[in-house]
Design a protein that fits this description.
Mean pLDDT: 85
Largest sheet: 8 strands, parallel
Number of strands: 15
CATH superfamily of the largest domain: Aldolase class I
Low-confidence stretches: 72-88
Strand order of the largest sheet: 4-13-12-11-10-7-6-5
Radius of gyration: 25 Å
Length: 527
């Protein structure tokens, strides 16, 4: 309101100065003209729908775009790097923004990366590239116990809750999913009208707080879950065990953001800070986890059901595999969340020092399922800093069947990484429940940007695979991804990592897996 008032005062001052120029002295025009221009610019900023920053910060917001225009000159001072040592936030964010806006993402004069730096990775091109398929590939989700399988897109919207994100942000994400034919993960914050209104396919995520299907005491409420899971737009159900950025602790939604609507969606008291428990009450052992997944699938009417985790101990995951084998049932999908992911607040020590990076997590889960003879019935999703086609191809090559993107999708709906998500004062209306700030996010414009981003990223992944001589993800092989392990040596993923054969853990266990396989107990979680 103060910002809008400032525009009004500027216009009033311009009119007053113009009046003074006519009645007192023409010298007042020196003040009237610039004030009038500023006032008109402010009014235009308030009514335009393309830039949320300008709608919330008329006139002043242009300073941000000036700095963005100067980015190539400032990049050397502000570039951030991800776990592989390559530029992420500035360079990758530019690619995401340009694709979301529908503009070209090419850069002149080649890469600025040090390709001889230890840790540098690259995908291997083929001397016989293939034609890019006209139809993007899809992944069938649904094992033998699933009666309503779902064809998942190659890239989807990762888990982000209503409450953490504004209603307009959720509407834009789901609208983009509906327009582009991909899935939208609800996050653990419950199933709201904003997830349902645009008509996009949903993966309903259930966390440790059981929001949207909980009793007054915080336990899982089967009847409410069954009613909501039966909705036509709910295509899959995902049980969240842990989150990449903060495994072992639940999500936190400050009381200031828990309005009456969010309280109703989550089945929690209004105005009170909501903290998800660090663990599930519905099960305590790997065997009970597998049974609970089967129960959720039955309650949902046979829809694909799985779980999400940031992998930790290989022994614990092998215990879950043993439980699947002994119980004769398994989840339809598993989402591997890398420790480098995360779109919201997390303790710095957790973000920096706890959890398995996505590459290692994917390799662990993929190989454990292959070795247990379960891989053909379980699909693997990957989430954690997937923003470009190259990121997606790498994850497919490392064992994933499809990818989920969170941060890139936030960029598409207008996030500028102001890092004020927890304060309810997001400058672009993405992570706020303040209706005056959230109005800055134009749903129609951002819906189109989400659709464009997903379409362009999948197209880029297809083009990269075609350049590698592959027409679909099934053709990717570990030797097609290489890493510089020292300034003079290159190694492929086939050489660097161990890849198990189907059923190998059930026949002749490799020495490197033997201790973990023998110690894995389906009736106990143990590191």
């Amino acid at each position: 309101m103060i910002r809008i008032s400032c525009v009004g005062l500027t216009v009033f001052a311009a009119l007053a100065a113009a009046g003074a120029a006519g009645w007192v002295s023409w010298w007042w025009l020196a003040a009237a003209v610039p004030l009038a221009l500023l006032g008109l610019l402010g009014v235009w900023d308030l009514v335009q729908r393309k830039h949320a920053v300008l709608r919330n910060y008329p006139v002043l917001g242009h300073a941000r775009f000036l700095l963005e225009y100067m980015r190539p000159e400032l990049q050397q001072y502000f570039v951030e790097r991800d776990y592989d040592g390559r530029p992420f936030d500035r360079d990758t964010r530019s690619i995401v923004y340009e694709r979301a806006k529908g503009t070209a993402a090419e850069e002149p004069f080649g890469t600025e990366l040090d390709v001889y730096r230890t840790g540098y990775e690259f995908l291997v091109p083929s001397m016989a590239p293939r034609e890019v398929p006209k139809t993007p590939p899809r992944v069938r989700i649904g094992g033998p116990d699933c009666t309503q399988p779902y064809d998942m897109a190659l890239l989807n919207v990762s888990a982000m809750s209503f409450g953490s994100l504004s209603a307009n942000a959720i509407l834009a994400l789901n609208g983009g999913a509906a327009a582009g034919g991909f899935a939208h993960d609800t996050g653990e914050g419950g199933l709201s009208e904003y997830h349902l209104r645009p008509g996009g396919d949903l993966v309903w995520e259930i966390g440790t707080g059981y929001f949207g299907c909980r009793t007054d005491d915080g336990d899982f409420k089967a009847s409410e879950f069954a009613d909501k899971a039966a909705h036509d737009q709910v295509k899959c159900v995902s049980l969240k065990l842990s989150q990449g950025a903060k495994p072992g602790i639940g999500g936190v939604l400050p009381g200031a953001k828990v309005n009456a609507e969010i309280a109703r969606v989550r089945d929690v008291p209004q105005g009170r800070t909501v903290t998800s428990p660090p663990y599930h009450r519905a099960f305590t052992t790997p065997r009970e986890l597998v049974r609970f997944i089967a129960r959720m699938r039955e309650l949902s009417g046979g829809k694909p059901t799985g779980f999400k985790l940031c992998p930790g101990s290989r022994r614990e995951f092998l215990a879950v595999c043993k439980a699947m084998l002994e119980e004769g049932t398994a989840p339809d999908f598993i989402i591997v969340d890398g420790s480098e992911g995360g779109t919201g607040a997390a303790p710095l020590e957790f973000a920096d020092q706890l959890g398995t990076p996505l590459t290692d997590g994917l390799l662990t889960v993929h190989n454990a399922l292959v070795g247990s003879g379960l891989r053909d019935r379980i699909r693997i999703g990957a989430s954690g800093k997937i923003a470009t086609g190259g990121d997606l191809v790498k994850r497919l090559l490392q064992g994933a069947d499809y990818g989920n993107a969170a941060r890139a999708m936030m960029f598409a709906v207008g996030c500028i990484q102001a890092q004020r998500c927890h304060t309810n004062t997001c400058p672009t209306g993405v992570t706020t429940q303040d209706p005056r700030r959230a109005r800055a996010l134009d749903v129609g414009d951002k819906t189109l940007r989400v659709q464009r981003l997903q379409q362009a990223t999948v197209q880029s992944a297809q083009q990269i695979m075609a350049s590698m001589g592959v027409t679909e993800p099934a053709g990717l092989r570990p030797h097609m991804l290489r890493r510089r392990v020292d300034p003079h040596t290159l190694r492929s993923y086939e050489e660097m990592y161990e890849w198990l054969e189907p059923g190998q853990l059930l026949a002749e266990v490799p020495a490197s897996w033997d201790a973990d396989w023998q110690a894995a107990d389906p009736d106990r979680f143990t590191v």
